[in-house]
Amino acid sequence: MTIEINPTALGVFIFFFVLVTVLGFVASRWRKPETLAHIDEWGLGGRSFGTWITWFLVGGDFYTAYTVIAVPALVYTVGAYGFFALPYTILVYPFVFMVMPLLWKRAKDFGYVTAGDVVHGQYGSRGLELAVAATGVVATMPYIALQLAGMTAVLKALGLHGELPLAIAFIVLALYTYSAGLRAPALIAFVKDIMIYIVVIAAVALIPSKLGGYGNVFASADAAFQAKGKGDILLGGSQYVAYATLAFGSALAAFMYPHTLTGIFASNSGKTIRKNAVLLPAYTMLLGLLALLGYMGHAAGLNLDSANDVVPALFKTLFSDWFSGFAFAAIAVGALVPAAVMSIGAANLFTRNFWKAYVDPQVSDAGEARVAKISSLVVKVGALLVILFLPTQFALDLQLLGGIWILQTLPALVFGLYTNWFRAPALLTGWFVGFFGGTYLVWDAGWKPLHMISFGGEPFTVYTGLLALAANIAAAVAINVALPVRRPVEA
């Protein structure tokens, strides 16, 4: 299991991992409520997080270990096309500023914990509630699994192979999440984000100087793409529509996920959310700097088994042992924070929109919290099984589907904030068309999230999620128009 282990790097990694573990267990005493035996306290931190805690928590949700690994890997593989995450994280914040305070207020006023709660409260439909909740859980599972993929890349760089190190890390995560709930990742996010900022700033400041400057970095990347006949440091004309629609669709989907909504619902006010919509673009700068590491991998002449190894290989090759250990710890901790929030978000959905709705409608507050805690453990085990027994590439394919799936919950969740015109049967039909139609299009394209269409002229490529969403909305509108007019209830 252990080959080519560097004691210094491993020692630094273990120190910071243990530090984060201690913080995870201490979190149960941080801002301690009267009881954690309530889903509002365990699953939403008492809805009390202010501007800075929310900033770190939502940022920690949004910029994950897989982001640190996958975005540079995509840029390393395909070039400029991999930068779609930059405009996407710019477009998302006006959406957050306008929509999320209204959604937060709806949840706060009625005690809603999940997107499924909001939908059931608005439309009174158990079927639509279940569709939204199930979509959230299914879309989250591969996302958690991909945090494990990011951690696997780090453990591999440390010389640790096999399933045991990964299993130990997630057992620790499961224990302190069970103990402290959302307070654990909220507290850890402070440490995680500071570590990530240090690592990225050091990387973009020092790595180019070791590689002959940014001019050589871009020239080397361009030469590498030309040599293999795939990718470019600039977008090609045929990529513009695909790039734009992928960015826009990803922006719409980002805050439909249970983990990002959990961070929103845990805020203490709509004003806090608006402040964060203004402050969070600082993470976009961070993401742009991270993406450049993909180009630096070409300039460094790395010999990689997988593109996912590009960032760990850069640190291992170009930095001292102790800083490499620090960087690997930052990436690993960056897996734990979002994985914890994702498991909490999925557990909240299962508890409120399945267990309470169908199994035990009279469950007590303490019983509800207990079910959520146990569910969070099951979610983590499920994600661990995905990564251990399915090929990583299959998990990546599922994550691509996850974005398309979660986007289909937007009409049911958001439209009701602005209008009462839509009715549950119409929205449920739209969800069905978008969910299964989008799944088919992705399968038909060889598990790629893009689909080629033509209106009689030159064909162009569009993000499948937006096509599915357009079909979703069109079906919902058509069915809604066809439904009998609702008669007012006589007094």
Automatic annotation (TrEMBL):
Superkingdom classification of source: Bacteria
InterPro entries: Na/Glc_symporter_sf, Na/solute_symporter, Sodium:Solute_Symporter
Pfam families in the record: SSF
Keywords, in A-Z order: Membrane, Transmembrane, Transmembrane helix, Transport
Topological type in the membrane: Multi-pass membrane protein
Endpoints of the signal sequence: none
Gene3D superfamilies: Sodium/glucose cotransporter (1.20.1730.10)
Localization per Swiss-Prot or TrEMBL: Membrane
TM annotation in the entry: 6-28, 49-75, 81-104, 130-158, 164-182, 194-211, 240-257, 278-302, 322-350, 371-392, 398-418, 425-443, 463-483
GO molecular function (one): transmembrane transporter activity
Gene Ontology CC annotations of this record: plasma membrane
Family, per entry: Belongs to the sodium:solute symporter (SSF) (TC 2.A.21) family.
Protein name in the entry: Sodium:solute symporter
